């Protein structure tokens, strides 16, 4: 499969491709993926569990599960220089992204923890056939800020798939 650039021909396509980077975070060692598009996995209790959790949920097409790891006022970078805030906007971005139906793999390069806050830096790759049936490969490095909530679950405060740009 060749690595090809994806031109930004419309705001919808731009959001799909840019959002794809968000989910480049390791395919789920934390749960089982079911044919119905749902996952059964524990919510992340350590910062290093957030990456595989979100990846499993997105790969399974389980939007509800994915949204469980975002704080209410989370910030998501849809493309360099552009952010959305809050569950409604992030849910819309994730929904668009899920239309790509590409598997995601990622490796946490570094997890820095200070109390209830952590910075998670991950290399990611998404590879498969795009909506047009042609091979598509996207990759990058994300930098995400997650915070432990009162219920003990670590959730995104800032989700930046373009963390090094």
Automatic annotation (TrEMBL):
Residue ranges of every copy of the DUF4440 domain listed in the record: 56-155
UniProt keyword annotation of Ribonucleoprotein present: no
Family matches, as Gene3D superfamilies: 3.10.450.50
Keyword Signal: yes
Signal sequence coordinates: 1-35
Keywords: Signal
Pfam families: DUF4440 (PF14534)
NCBIfam families reported in the protein's UniProt record: SgcJ/EcaC family oxidoreductase
Protein name per Swiss-Prot or TrEMBL: SgcJ/EcaC family oxidoreductase
Natural source organism: Rhizobium hidalgonense
């Amino acid at each position: 499969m060749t690595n090809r650039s994806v031109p930004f021909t419309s705001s919808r396509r731009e959001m799909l491709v840019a959002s794809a980077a968000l989910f480049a975070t390791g395919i789920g060692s934390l749960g089982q993926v079911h044919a119905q598009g749902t996952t059964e996995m524990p919510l992340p209790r350590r910062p290093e569990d957030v990456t595989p959790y979100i990846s499993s949920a997105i790969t399974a097409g389980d939007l509800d599960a994915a949204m469980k790891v975002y704080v209410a006022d989370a910030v998501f970078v849809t493309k360099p220089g552009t952010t959305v805030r809050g569950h409604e906007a992030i849910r819309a971005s994730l929904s668009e992204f899920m239309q790509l139906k590409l598997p995601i793999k990622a490796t946490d390069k570094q997890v820095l923890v200070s109390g209830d806050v952590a910075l998670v830096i991950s290399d990611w790759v998404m590879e498969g056939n795009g909506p047009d049936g042609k091979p598509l490969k996207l990759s990058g490095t994300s930098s995400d800020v997650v915070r432990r909530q009162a219920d003990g679950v670590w959730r995104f405060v800032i989700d930046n798939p373009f963390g090094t740009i």
